[in-house]
Amino acid sequence: MTEETKTKKLTKAEQEKLDQATALKAHLVTLIDRQKTAYAAKGFDQQASLKISAEDQKVSLVFGKDNNGEDTHRVMLWILPEGQWQLANVDEVEAVAIEAASILDDIEFPKFIHVVDGKNEKFFEMDFPPIEVDQIPSVNEINNYKQIKRDPTYYWSREMYQRLMNGLDYFHETVYTKTKDNVSNKNEIIEEVAKFLFLETFRIHHPDQEFTYENKTYKFKDVFDWQYIKEHKADAVKQIKVAFDALKEHQDYKVTDDNGEEHPIFDVETHLRLAKPENYLVLMQLIQDLPGVFLNSEFQKPKDNRAIIAKKAHPNLGDVAADVLGRVFDVFLRGNFESKGGMGVYLTPAPVKQCMLQMAMHDILEESPEILNTKGKDGKPVFRFCDPTCGSYGFGSIALGHIERALMEVLGKETADDVRRDEHFQAMLEHSFVGADAAPLMVKLARVNMALLGAPKANIFKTDNSLTTPQLKAGSFDLICTNPPFGKSKSSIIDILKQYTTDLHEAAKGKEWIYKPTVYGRALGGKPNNKDRWKLASNGIDMAVLFIDRCLELLKPGGRLLMVLPDGILCNSGDRYVREYIMGKKDEVTGKFSGGKAIIKAVVSLPSDTFALSGTGAKTSILYLQKRDAHQEDKNIFANQEQGDVFMAVAQTLGYVVKQNVEDYSTGVPNDLAAISGAYVRGE
Predict the structure, then answer these.
(1) Which candidate, 339, 323, 355, places its Cα nearest to that of 449?
(2) Regarding beta strands 584-586 and 593-595, do their DSSP bridges make them parallel or antiparallel, or are they unpaired?
(3) C-beta neighbour count of 180 within 10 angstroms
(4) Which run of H or of E encompasses 216?
(5) Which residues of the chain have pLDDT under 70?
(6) Interatomic CA distance for residues 627 and 643, integer angstroms
(7) Which residues pair with 121 in a beta bridge?
(8) Angstrom distance (rounded) from CA 428 to CA 206
(9) d(C-alpha 251, C-alpha 273), whole Å
(10) What pLDDT is recorded for position 424?
(11) Is the dihedral of CA 374, 377, 380, 385 positive or negative?
């Protein structure tokens, strides 16, 4: 063989491709070296190599030593080529961390990830899901952030996340476009998926449960099985439908609201819609036929001599980490839910929910951390979270994660604290999370969402009107996060008078009222004139105004309210009385406000496309209030607290642009709310 035949001459196209690959590799090396140098200058002067399968990407770890001489948490640098910025999102960040760093133990697993493509950069704190932040802490501050202990099956669970997400999206699209099967819209398919997830969790946690079909007794776990449906087809479908109608009334899946009323997840009128055995088979096999769990050689470093953590040939959804499973449903729901069509349901974007919870939980940890781990005389946790217009309980599911992390701060991170912390958190899952909504579908989805997160007893229920229901009691909650309905109230004037004017008292002349604020009273069914005499509102009142009043009533003194509101309430001259109702009137001499019900902590303006996916361009803001304390000598009136400085910020973008009804993260626009919440937490 001659030398000429050994060396193949490249074509012009092949040579150009090779040159491009070589140039890209050199560019990536330059970028990662530049980042390493920048971190070394900040004290992160130690490095560790990592590998990734994508040849057009680079990853590395950097860390340093803090003032105490301790190794810091790790920061992972992830370098992307130009044109792939859409990968800089929470799901892809988590995936690349698992691929590149799964062999590392909890201590060495990166706490932060810095993503760069030469033009753009993003920072993430590594929880599940990752949380976008606006900067990496300094070398002396980074160890103040607690490293979350990961579930032993965490890496396997993360693989199941992608598997389940792809499978559910495929099933949803297939039923919607091809097999149909007794469903008329996208949301009905989502509801059917929720029912099957409920049945699967029931099968896992109640393996001996029986039901009767045609005078014969069956074990539910034997019938609700993908292999059984494969064999018995239509007969199995009939049995499962009967089982669902019987098991949905199980006491373990009922909650009792503050008015003593019981609520199952699915009411007596809810049945399984799907009828085609092939659809049952696809969905049941997806959620039941999971690959085995083996967590020794594949996911542990060679130096780690621990025994096999878990080895299970036939795992089920019960083996998937709860936060992972809950995120599967949340992302599936948000990606496929159809808001347009008159339902008045607007799913709040994740960056908005994260920003609101980060601000609130920071203040709770700074000012009143004891409420998180205190128990009442009844032995139940005293801390309670509520969303009175909860939809799918998106705020509650994110609050759950933040509260679990906050308990690491309050109850310690040592092994000896684990049992006490876990016991308290389990009690919180049953008693601390409350939600209500008028839409039956949303309540079902919310209950299933929380059940998948390990909270089947979360007190979420349907109510005809959260503004008036006795199922929500005044002075019951420490934290309310909500996105209430906007627009003019359809209630009659008489109804408003009866329900919203408990703080208005008849004046001497009869048709006017005097406003006297009380800790649990309401008055916004009326409106003051220029002489400060209140009259019944002559026109419909914006529902958001009524919800401000209602939420302040529901809060305990000192409780916190974060609400998405239309901008008009915050700036229109006609709504000035609402602002004065909240914070009081300004004394022109002292410059201080008095007579209000709350202290305004922050106002954050949101972009006009925040709810574009829900079909509305309403301009909105986040309003953050803290209800004033009660007077020490008279608990029915407010203490005289000063209104301090108000944190104000404007978000122009949320990290994506809406294109063709899809959130497009590839454009490189920043998530301003990450910077805003970071600035708030740092007191800037």
Answers:
(1) 323
(2) antiparallel
(3) 13
(4) strand 216-219
(5) 1-8, 15, 17-19, 21, 24, 149-152, 293-313, 339-346, 412-417, 489-498, 508-510, 538-539, 613-616, 660-662
(6) 11
(7) 116
(8) 22
(9) 23
(10) 93
(11) negative
What is the distance between the alpha carbons of residues 548 and 551, in angstroms, rounded to a whole number? 5
Show Cβ contacts of residue 279 under 8 Å, excluding neighbours closer than 6 positions: 171, 175, 179, 181
What is the C-alpha to C-alpha distance for residues 532 and 522, in angstroms, rounded to an integer?
16
* Total count of residues recorded for the chain: 684
Residue 262 neighbours by CB under 8 Å, 6+ apart: 254, 255, 256
Tokens of 608: 């006009």
Neighbours of 302 (CB within 10 A): 7
pLDDT (0 to 100) of residue 91: 82
Q: Which residue has the tokens 């109702």?
A: 581
pLDDT at 405: 86
Which contiguous run of DSSP H or E holds residue 159? helix 154-174
3-state secondary structure 240-306: HHHHHHHHCCCHHHEEECCCCCEEECCCCCCCCCCCCHHHHHHHHHHHHCCCCEECCCCCCCCCCCC
- Give, for 212, the enclosing helix (H) or strand (E): strand 210-213
Task: Show the tokens assigned to 315.
Answer: 């795992």
Q: pTM above the 0.90 mark?
A: no
43: three-class secondary structure by DSSP = coil
DSSP code of residue 418: H
- Count of C-beta atoms within a 10 Å radius of residue 290: 20
CB 456 within 8 A of CB 251: no
Q: Is residue 590 a contact partner of residue 606, using CB atoms and an 8 Å limit?
A: no
Residue found by looking up tokens 């029912």 in the block: 195
3-class secondary structure, 152: coil
